[in-house]
Design a protein that fits this description.
It is built from eleven helices and 15 strands. The strands form three sheets. Strands 2-3-11-8-13-6-5-4 form an eight-stranded mixed β-sheet. Strands 1-10-9-12-7 form a five-stranded mixed β-sheet, with no helix packed on it. Helix 1 packs across helix 2 and helix 4 crosses helix 7. The structure holds N-oxalylglycine (OGA) and nickel (II) ion (NI).
Length: 359
C-alpha cells in the first residue's frame, strides 16, 4: 500500500517548496515529516530494497604511495577495465584539505533557503554556479532525495568572484591539490591505450574542464521508497569523489548485472570512477559503470565529486592511438557539450546515455 501523505502536506505544494523556493530536500527533511512525499516515490524496480543482490565484495583499493612503480599503474588500468571503480589511498591530497571541504559543504547547506536560493537556476548570476535539488526535476518521473551545489571551474579569478563564500576556498583548494594525482591516474591509463604522454592535445581532450559538486543527502523518512541518486554512469573522463563516513554508494558489478557492491567509506581515501567520456575515448576498454546512492533514514550524508571532463567544445571519440592496431571503432565522434546535454535531458537511466555515441 502506498504510504499516506503527512497532513502538513495537505496545504503544501511539495515541488514548489523543495524545487522552486530553494528549500531542497534538506528543507523537507527538517519539517520532520513522517512519510515520504509522493513525488519522491520511485518505481519499484529503481528502489534499493528490490535490488536482487548486494554482495560483500570490494572494489579494488590502490595504494598510491609509490605511484612511479609500474605495479601501481597496472593496478589502476586493471581496475579501470574490470571494475570501472576503485578507491585510492596515500594519494597525496592532505587530510586537512579533505576535512575542510567536507566542513565547507555542511556550512553551505546550513545556510537558510533564501541564501542558497540565490544560486538556483532562476536566480544565479552565472551558469557556472548552480544550487539545485534532485537531478533534472523537469525531466524526471520521480524526484531524487538529494540537494547539490555545482561549480564549474573557469579560472581562479572567476571562482573568487562568483562561488559562494562559505565554500569557495575549500572547494578550490580540494581541486588544486587533487590535480597531481588526477594527472598521474590519467597518465597511467592512457599509456595502456598506446598514448605516449599527457601532452597538450590529450590534456585538453581528457581534462579540459572541471566541475566540483557538493552533494547533500538529508535524513529521509522512507529511504526504502526512494533513492539519493538513481542508477547512472557519469559523463566525465574520470570522477574523483570524496565521501564522508556514512556510506550508501553502490556500484554495479561488470558482467554480473544483478549484483551491486557497496563502496565502504575509508577515512582519507578517494573513490575514482571511469566516466562515459573515457569509455568512449578508450573504445570501450575502460568501463564507466552504473552506480546509485541509497537514501538514509537516520543520518545526513555528504559527498564531494570532482568531475574531470573534456572541454565542452571538444570532439570526443575513440583515440587514434587506440585504433592504430586496426581495432574497429565502437563509438563515433561527438561534440562533448551535445553528449552532456543529452544526459541532462532525461532522468537517470543507467548506462543509456552512452548509446548516444554508439556507431
Ligand atoms: C554523482 C554520484 C555519488 C555519491 O554525483 O555522480 O554518483 O556518493 N555521487 O554521492
Ligand atoms: Ni555518479
Amino acid at each position: 500500500m502506498a504510504p499516506s501523505i503527512s497532513p502538513i502536506f495537505d496545504s503544501l505544494d511539495v515541488t514548489n517548496f523543495a524545487v522552486h523556493q530553494g528549500n531542497g530536500v534538506k528543507g523537507l527533511s527538517e519539517l520532520g515529516l513522517k512519510t515520504l512525499p509522493k513525488q519522491y516515490i520511485q518505481p519499484l524496480e529503481e528502489r534499493m530494497s528490490s535490488m536482487s543482490h548486494i554482495v560483500p565484495e570490494s572494489i579494488p583499493i590502490i595504494d598510491m604511495a609509490n605511484w612511479d612503480d609500474p605495479k601501481v599503474s597496472d593496478a589502476i588500468c586493471d581496475a579501470a577495465e574490470k571494475w570501472g571503480f576503485f578507491q585510492i589511498i596515500n594519494h597525496g591530497v592532505p587530510i586537512e584539505v579533505l576535512e575542510d571541504v567536507k566542513k565547507a559543504t555542511h556550512r553551505f547547506f546550513g545556510l537558510p533557503a533564501e541564501k542558497k536560493g540565490k544560486y538556483s537556476k532562476e536566480n544565479s548570476s552565472t551558469n557556472n554556479v548552480r544550487y539545485g535539488t534532485s537531478f533534472s526535476p523537469l525531466a524526471e518521473k520521480a524526484l531524487e532525495w538529494k540537494d547539490y551545489l555545482s561549480l564549474f571551474y573557469v579560472s581562479d579569478h572567476e571562482a573568487a568572484a562568483r562561488w559562494p563564500s562559505q565554500c569557495k576556498d575549500q572547494a578550490l583548494e580540494f581541486m588544486k591539490r587533487s590535480d597531481d594525482v588526477i594527472r598521474r591516474l590519467l597518465e597511467a591509463l592512457i599509456k595502456r591505450l598506446n598514448v605516449k604522454e599527457l601532452d597538450e592535445t590529450h590534456e585538453t581532450l581528457l581534462m579540459g574542464s572541471k566541475r566540483i559538486n557538493l552533494n547533500y543527502y538529508p535524513i529521509c523518512p522512507n529511504p526504502e521508497l526512494t533513492v539519493g541518486v538513481g542508477r547512472h554512469s557519469d559523463v566525465s573522463t574520470l570522477t574523483f569523489l570524496l565521501q564522508d563516513d556514512i556510506g550508501g554508494l553502490y556500484v554495479r558489478k561488470i558482467d554480473d548485472s544483478e549484483t551491486w557492491i557497496h563502496v565502504p567509506p575509508i577515512n582519507g581515501s578517494i573513490v575514482i570512477n571511469v566516466g562515459d567520456a573515457l569509455q568512449i575515448m578508450s573504445n570501450g576498454r575502460y568501463k564507466s559503470v552504473e552506480h546509485r546512492v541509497m537514501a538514509n533514514g537516520s543520518k545526513n550524508r555528504i559527498s564531494v565529486p570532482i568531475f574531470v571532463n573534456p572541454k565542452p567544445s571538444a570532439i570526443i571519440g575513440p583515440l587514434p592511438e587506440v585504433l592504430e592496431s586496426g581495432e574497429k571503432p565502437v563509438y563515433k565522434q561527438v561534440l562533448y557539450s551535445d553528449y552532456v546535454k543529452y544526459f541532462f535531458r532525461k532522468g537517470h537511466d543507467g548506462k543509456d546515455t552512452v548509446e548516444f555515441a554508439k556507431i
